[in-house]
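2024-03-11 09:14:02 INFO worker-7 job=invfold-0412 stage=load source=structure_tokens
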């Protein structure tokens, strides 16, 4: 007797992050808008990040992406107080365990694309947080596709 196992992924659903053409000053965090995964029940997340630096930065300077969860449905983890750049004073720096990925920028002012694939998601509300660790301001565009399993067949 043989066992058949089929695993298919559903097509990605676009999720609004609130991080579209956001300018981040140097050494600053920006938290996007809430995504309610307690309702969506997405299992994975793909991110496409486009970073455009206002001036040439040191090659390898970090831009990071993290997830903050509201496990109780209301309160997000506090993290470390964020740098007050005037525009994003309330946005916290996530704790190290919230980090999804870090990207070292190129020494260029041309748009830089960066993909993060198959990030596992928990079934809670969450926010994406982008950190600009370069010595220059940058503009970020973040596209998020979230998806789950379409079907599983055993037997």
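2024-03-11 09:14:09 INFO worker-7 stage=emit residues=155
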């Amino acid at each position: 007797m043989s066992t058949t196992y089929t695993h298919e992924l559903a097509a990605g659903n676009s999720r609004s992050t609130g991080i579209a053409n956001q300018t981040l000053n140097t050494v600053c965090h920006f938290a996007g808008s809430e995504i309610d995964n307690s309702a969506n029940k997405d299992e994975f997340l793909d991110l496409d990040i486009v970073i455009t630096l206002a001036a040439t930065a040191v090659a390898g300077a970090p831009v990071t992406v993290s997830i903050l969860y509201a496990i109780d449905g209301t309160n997000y983890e506090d993290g470390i107080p964020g740098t007050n750049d005037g525009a994003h004073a309330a946005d916290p720096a996530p704790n190290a365990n919230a980090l999804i990925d870090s990207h070292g920028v190129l020494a260029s002012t041309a748009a830089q694309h960066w993909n993060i694939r198959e990030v596992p998601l928990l079934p809670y509300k969450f926010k994406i947080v982008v950190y600009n660790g370069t010595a220059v301001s940058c503009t970020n565009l973040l596209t998020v596709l979230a998806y789950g399993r379409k079907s599983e067949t055993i037997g």
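2024-03-11 09:14:09 INFO worker-7 stage=report msg="Residues 37 and 101 are 20 Å apart (CA to CA)."
2024-03-11 09:14:10 INFO worker-7 job finished
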